[in-house]
Structure formats: C-alpha cells, structure tokens
Design goal:
It is a single chain. The protein folds into two domains: about 25-160; about 165-200. Helix 2 (about 25-80) runs antiparallel to helix 3 (about 85-160). Helix content is about 90%, strand content about 0%. By secondary structure, the protein is an all-alpha fold. The longest helix has about 80 residues, at about 85-160.
Amino acid sequence: MGLFSKVVTQVKGLLNDAQEASEDVGSIARQSVRDLEVDIAEVEQAQVGIIAEQNVLLAKIDAANGNVEKFVGYAEKAIAKGDDALALSAINDKNKAVAERDALQAQADRFAPSVVAIQEKLDKLRQRRDEMARDTSLIEARSSVAQAQDRAATILGGVGNSESATKTFDRLNDKVQRAEAQAAAKVQIAAQKDGSAEANKYASLNADSPTAAQDELAAMKAKLGK
C-alpha cells in the first residue's frame, strides 16, 4: 500500500470514527423503523396484486366448473330425449370445459406458493417492525449508559496518571537539587579562596581547649592558693 493510500485509509477511518461518535442512536433507530415500514408498504402493495391475480384464477375455475355442470346437464337431457347427436355435442363441450378448468387449476396450484410466501414475508417484516419499535427506547437508554460509562472511564483513567504533570514535577525537583548543589559548591570554593577553610581545618581539635575565662579563673585560684 502506497503512502497516498495509507493517508486516504487513515482519513476515512477518522471520518468514520467521528461519524459514529456523533450518531444519534435514537434517531437512527426510529428512522430504521420508518424505513422498514416503507418496505412493508411495498410488499403489501405487491400482495394486493398477487391476491387479485389469484382471485381472477379462482373465478375462472368456478366458471369452468359451472360450464362442466351445465354441459353435463345438457347431455343428460339430450339422452332423455333420445337425441344422441345433441348429447354427444354436449359431452364434447363438457370435455372442453373440463380441460379449461384443469389448466386453470394447474396455474392456480403453481401460483399458490407465491401467495403463501409473500404472506409469510409480510408477517416476518411486521413482526420485526414491531420488535424494532418496541426496542427503540431501550437502545436509546443503553446508548446513554454506554456513553456515560465511556466518559467516566476516560476521566478515571486520566486522574492521577498524567505523565506530563509527573515529568514536569520531577524536572523541577531536579532543577532545585542542582541549584542547591551549585550554591554549596560556590560556598566551598569561596572558603578555600579566603583561607578560612584552612584555618578551620583543625578547629575541631581545639574544641576542648580552655577558653580565656577559664584561664583567668585558674590564675585567680592560684593567687588565692586555691
């Protein structure tokens, strides 16, 4: 993948993330229900056409059955009158009506599964529509809770864990320590330059030597024989 493709992919990812973050779940859920209602309306319209075609076929079958019964009656009457030629003609017409009825019935039989299938499809779409409408408020509540949890987790994850603040504090502490060390070094160097460091080198050895007041006290005691 080239650099340009990577950049495009990254931008698309950022845009999708931004879109998902700004989505109003409740509005989208309600619109989904409305979209499904449009689909249901289209299927219902198709169902009207299919049922109408089925009714036309059934009406033609009923008419064909009526013709069969009619010609059977004609044949019986012709036989009763002894008119075999007329009876034969009625039987031929009856057979034609039977053939027409059977052809129409075959079409109706092939058509019946489509009627059942579209009704089943419509029932499922209506059931799904009702479920989605019922769950819309629940989806909104779940989304609100999830967003609140996400905000809480983000806040809790950031409290006391700021790397930037910690690094800044440590840097200031190091700076003060360096300043203190530098000041102490300057005092030490200054003492070496004026000789006080050398004079004080053995000061601790004379810590127990008599002071001027002690010397004076010893002299007075010797004078008084004490």
